[in-house]
Design brief:
It is a single chain. The protein has 10 helices and 13 strands. It is an alpha/beta fold. The protein folds into 2 domains: 202 residues, NAD(P)-binding Rossmann-like Domain (Rossmann fold), CATH 3.40.50; 93 residues, Alpha-Beta Complex (UDP-galactose 4-epimerase, domain 1). Strands 3-2-1-4-5-6-11 form a 7-stranded parallel β-sheet, sandwiched between helices. Strands 7-10 form a two-stranded parallel sheet. β1, α1 and β2 form a beta-alpha-beta unit. α1 packs across α7, α6 packs across α10 and α8 packs across α10. The longest helix is centred in the first third of the chain and has 22 residues. The structure holds uridine-5'-diphosphate. Uridine-5'-diphosphate binds next to α6 and β8.
Length: 322
């Protein structure tokens, strides 16, 4: 296949491009690099079958030649990133999604939307099944991401109904692993970077809110299976992809301290507005449709991620000798 990946220079997108190339597909990656990393492109540019265009997909764009699949992964995804780029986040979820769907329609290609557990907002149902419609504040600070992705789902479903595009949706829950930006502001990267630097771990609120952390290789496996699924009623999703191992943020902090061997302490900071209290995927649909469930537990995945951050971060300055 020749696969277009929007946001292919990002954390998830670059792992996905790598996996698709390894399976023998050609990959055309588009990214405007506002949160994607040029180094991820440099890494991929050496691979046979890889092409890159610096392109904001919120503006109309075309890809020359045949295209078999369009994977729409472009968007800031970390809360500090989308709060810094609120309008670009809304645009890529709306215009960007429509432009990517248009490309799929023109080329007769399959389409896959990277949606998010944020469509469930601050859920009053846990774990969250795909049938739950969510509880989202439509104009709070997080709405720039939540509502953009909800709109993106609506646009994807409309292209399927109105234009007959084979359009699919996955809802991605908190994913972590090598190649996260050290300062992207998410819980895993913040805690590891802080622990390795001997700095205090910034726990927002009392740390009792939960998240379910999925290791990136597991997530990519789920995405690829969704892409390969034979067309049909069920292939359209939405399908939750995430690890149902639910942990409190306090537990994540303690595990990071244990695995890094850090003696850092925790420091409590105010909970951001509308921060979801709980988040845990119901993955029964993914298990049934894709035969998929995550294999990498938090301990193993965090060890891999810590090793990555150790390799890219400067070693902390040695304590001065007196
Ligand atoms: N969080 C935290 N300290 C940090 C960063 C995040 O306590 O330094 C909390 C945040 O308030 C949220 C959870 O960790 O409850 C996950 O936040 P993240 O930004 O990783 O992603 P989210 O799931 O909110 O999109």
């Amino acid at each position: 296949m020749r696969v277009v990946v929007t946001g292919g220079a990002g954390f998830l997108g670059s792992h996905l491009c790598e996996r698709l190339l390894a399976e023998g597909h050609a990959v055309f990656c588009l990214d405007n690099l506002i949160t994607g990393h040029p180094e991820n492109v440099a890494l991929l540019q050496g691979r046979a079958g890889f092409e890159f265009a610096a392109q904001d997909v919120s503006e109309p764009f075309d890809v020359p030649g045949a295209v078999d699949a369009v994977l729409h992964f472009a968007s800031p995804a970390s809360p500090p990133d989308y709060l810094r780029h609120p309008l670009a986040t809304l645009r890529v979820g709306s215009h960007g999604t429509e432009n990517a769907l248009e490309l799929a329609r023109r080329k007769g290609a399959r389409f896959l939307l990277a949606s998010t557990s944020e469509v469930y907002g601050d859920p009053d149902v846990s774990p969250q099944p795909e049938t739950y419609w969510g509880q989202v504040n439509p104009n709070g600070p997080r709405s720039v991401y939540d509502e953009a992705k909800r709109f993106a789902e609506a646009m994807t479903a409309a292209y399927r109904r109105h234009h007959g595009v084979d359009a699919r949706i996955v809802r991605i829950f908190n994913t972590y692993g090598p190649r996260m930006r050290p300062h992207d502001g998410r819980v895993v990267s913040n805690f590891i970077v802080q622990a390795l630097a001997g700095a205090e771990l910034t726990v927002y609120g009392d740390g009792s809110q939960t998240r379910s952390l999925c290791y990136v290789s597991d997530l990519v496996e789920g995405i690829v299976r969704m892409l390969y699924l034979a067309p049909g009623e069920e292939a359209r999703g939405p399908v939750n992809l995430g690890n149902p191992e639910e942990m409190t943020v306090g537990d994540i902090a303690r595990l990071v301290l244990e695995l890094t061997g850090s003696s850092s302490r925790m420091r409590h900071e105010p909970l951001p507005q509308d921060d979801p209290r709980r988040r845990c995927p119901d993955i029964a649909r993914a298990e049934r449709l894709l035969g998929w469930r995550p294999r990498v537990g938090a301990r193993e995945g965090l060890l891999q991620t810590i090793a990555y951050f150790r390799s890219v971060l400067p070693a902390p300055a040695a304590a001065p000798a007196y």
